[in-house]
User: Which sequence fits this backbone?
């Protein structure tokens, strides 16, 4: 996980694979591996990782969305929606809205409508998933706008949340300017 946070994505997959080799029963719980696979463009393997995770955690909204993100890269967003993983109801309004937007293809304004803080958890997650939605739909400019804004939130800068690191890695991998990216790793 530390290697991923430093944008050493290839090395992170090697480490995750080593864990699975030593303890195969851990594979369903390696959602971080799925994220690393996504950033390496290994979408088939990433989708498989997320589907395995949802099989053991059937209420995992984010893994359902990440399955879609991988599969959208392979077969396009419309086909990926036809095979969208159903999961239980997320207790977080922002993530419930994100799930519905990804599943239905509705524009992501509904996600930000659920934000109730100012630069906190909801703002960060809302912006991240709005950006990911736009990227899946092929709108790179809107994706960049939203995800770089997510990285700039106080939550992203201060929380230590793995997904805040993911947002920074996302920007670095795409060559987008990242505010406060010192120590975020090489581009």
Assistant:
């Amino acid at each position: 996980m530390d290697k991923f946070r430093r944008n050493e994505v290839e090395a992170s997959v090697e480490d995750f694979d080593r864990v699975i080799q030593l303890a195969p029963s851990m594979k369903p719980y390696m959602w971080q591996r799925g994220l690393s696979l996504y950033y390496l463009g290994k979408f088939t393997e990433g989708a498989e990782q997320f589907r395995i995770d949802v099989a053991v955690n059937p209420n995992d909204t984010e893994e359902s969305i990440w399955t879609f993100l991988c599969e959208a890269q392979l077969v396009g967003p419309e086909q990926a929606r036809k095979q969208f993983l159903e999961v239980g109801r997320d207790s977080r309004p922002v993530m419930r809205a994100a799930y519905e937007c990804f599943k239905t293809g509705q524009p992501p304004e509904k996600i930000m409508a659920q934000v109730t803080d100012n630069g906190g958890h909801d703002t960060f997650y809302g912006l991240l998933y709005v950006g990911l939605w736009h990227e899946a739909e092929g709108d790179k400019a809107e994706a960049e706008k939203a995800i770089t804004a997510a990285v700039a939130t106080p939550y992203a800068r201060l929380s230590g949340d793995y997904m805040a690191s993911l947002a920074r890695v996302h920007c670095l991998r795409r060559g987008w300017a990242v505010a406060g990216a010192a120590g975020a790793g090489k581009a």
User: Anything to note?
Assistant: The two ends are 17 Å apart (CA to CA). Residues 64 and 85 are 5 Å apart (CA to CA). The longest helix spans residues 121-136.
